[in-house]
Amino acid sequence: MKTIFVGLLIALAAGKLLAQKPPVKFGDIPMEDLAMVKYEKDTSASALVLADYGESSIEFNQTTGFSLNFERITRIKILSKEGLDWATFNIPLYHDGGSDEKMSGLKAVTYNLENKKVVSTKIKSDAVFKEKVDDNWDVMKVTLPNVTEGSIVEISYKVNSDFLTQFQDWEFQYTIPVRWSEYRANIPEFFGYDKYMQGYVVLTVNETKDVPSFISITSKERSGGAGWTSSQTEFSHDKVDFMESRSRWVAQDVPAFKPEPFITTPKDYISKLNFEIAYEKFPNRPIKSFLSTWDEVNTLFSKSEHFGEEVTGNNFLKKTVEEVTAGLTTREQKISAINNYVKRNVEWNGSSYKFTNSSFRKVLVDKKGGSAEINLLMASMLDKAGIPVFPVLVSTRDHGFVRESSPISSQFNYVICMVKIDDKQILLDATDKLLPTGVIPERCLNGRGLVINKDGKHSWVNLESPIKSRAYYSTDLTLNGDGQLAGTVLADRSGYYARQKRKNFFSQGEEEYVKDFIDGKSWTVAKSEFTNANEVSEAFKELHEVVIEDQVISAGDVMYVNPFVVLREEENPFKLEKREYPVDFGSPLEELLICKIMIPEGYAVDELPKSQLLKLPDNTAKYIYSLTQNGNVLSLTSDLQINRSLFSQDEYPHLREFYNMVVAKQAEQIVLKKNN
Q1: For 229-246, how does the pLDDT look when each residue is reduced to its tens digit (9 = 90+)?
Q2: Which pLDDT score, from 0 to 100, does residue 290 have?
Q3: In angstroms, rounded to a whole number, what is the distance separating the alpha carbons of residues 584 and 445?
């Protein structure tokens, strides 16, 4: 009688034919780095990444199978007090179901130069703690001790992961300069990953070589053991040859990424190498593809009990919908009523998820919920009202842009709604009480959103505001011989300008709001009136009776008057001569000032700035400056319009120069001279 036991032992060949020494050795600190006072290539730097080295390998373990192993050493020089925050490291760890990534081998040391001697301070266990980010991510926070100006902090750790889909990306650039950044990846041919580089840093080294390797298969066969016959075990060995891709990327002397205004998030534009798993391909097995289609993503969400079925289900909402829409005849009225009902009854808790975590009954009882609960609740109510509604997956501005060439749902972190009335599409979000129906929060103005359809066919929608953000000021002022301006300042704001001012008004209260309005100015406010504070579909208006002391410079018989008591662009927001990434205003905007100034008796206009019209091609940006005199009344019209939300890098020099000219024009002064 013969009994056979077959076992499989797979071991990836350990020989690293292309192996090179790491560029940095933990604890080996050059004295010149400790003595460094400033970084000559960027003397403004608060800290400097001296070396950042990482290596990812796919390896096999007899018990757990294939896994990802990631090792890292990072060394940072602290150059000033502003750089002390770089002594805290955040290590992301992924988890899903019952599995999670595991960190090991943590070493962290602070090095200081004291009396020409190197003093090392190791981290203590109480300086390491885990913090939850969301349902799939935790972050291990590590804060190094005894850090001061001049310190060098160094950390080394390993992360083991069973999630082959979570291959470590690598950032070559930060908001501080980087002297040396190197990443290596060792990937057996059984796994295919799409790699794409973002950003504008040119790599010093970018090399990939395929190296022969092998898998050793050890089988054991046991025979005999019947009656008085002893059993025997025989071992056989087979070898499977394969190629391993070994890649190395190096960036040297990387400048700090300097965020400028009007950007989504720096992580969209920093230089970074991204990985996405494409397939698994083992011998004698069909290829397993990990790349889905957007239609498959659509089906996944539309059939999910925590997404699409939340919209079509929850029939208990029918009665509420009937009450909310009673007496309303048009779809527009019903949409607005349901949107406002959800806003009034459910407070947003600040969380941004794609799927619901709580039932709608609980959300309505607790009167709070995440973006998914709030907006899918609204979608379900619209569905019960017979209005065609579609959930829309969104990546918020701080989450980053969506690469539509890669159908991966993790690119989204938020959900809103879209309704259709005839050929008109209306975007809805009920998380923000200070925005009118049909206007989504600014955080959602980020490219396009994925529309989830019940028929299984996806589509895209532009995430745009239907209205322009507009700030309109009207001032009616009288100038006296002492250089005081007295009169009224009327502000009329709509769109996102109104939303921000309403937020400030309700959070501060009227008294503090007025104090904030005149903060830093030599103004006295005698009286203030506010209109439409609670009517978010209307412009938010405020009227102030003021005396202004700081707008006129007197020099003997001459007065110099700048009429821009408000809405003056005192400096160009675009500092960099060359910008490597787009300018994203989020939405079109307009700032309009109508100013009237009555000059005092006994004075005449000596110099009056000339009127001017500035325009960029296709009217994408426009500025009108018109200053006229009628008797003793000066009338100014200043109208700044940004008519397109996105400007490319190639358009940046023209936009920057446009703002230079606006700043210069608004700095010009009216010269009044006393009559003899």
Answers
A1: 556 667 666 777 889 999
A2: 86
A3: 10
Question: What's the rounded Cα separation, in Å, for the pair 292 and 290?
Answer: 6
pLDDT tens track for 49-79? 999 999 999 988 767 778 999 999 999 999 9
- The residues facing 232 across adjacent strands are 223
Confidence of residue 3 (pLDDT cuts 50, 70, 90): very low
Which class would CATH give 9-18+39-288?
mainly beta
Nearest-angstrom CA–CA distance, 433 and 534: 10
- CATH assignment of 469-674, given 2.60.120.1130, 1.10.3720.10, 3.30.1130.10, 3.20.20.140? 2.60.120.1130
Q: What is the pLDDT of residue 228?
A: 53
Architecture of domain 294-462: Roll (3.10)
CA–CA separation, 537 vs 343, rounded Å?
14
- Interacting residues of 551 by C-beta distance below 8 A, sequence separation 6+: 485, 561, 562, 563, 565
Query: Domain boundaries in the chain?
Result: 9-18+39-288, 294-462, 469-674
Quote the tokens at residue 347: 């407070």
Q: Following DSSP, what letter does each residue of 592-660 receive, concatenated?
A: EEEEEEEPPTTEEEEE-PPPEEEE-GGGSEEEEEEEEEETTEEEEEEEEEE--SEE-TTTHHHHHHHHH
Partnered with residue 607 across adjacent β-strands are: 671
**How far is the CA of 558 from the CAs of 241, 500, 562, 655, in angstroms?**
91, 40, 13, 36
Amino acid at 287: I
The whole-angstrom separation of Cα 93 and Cα 134 is 11
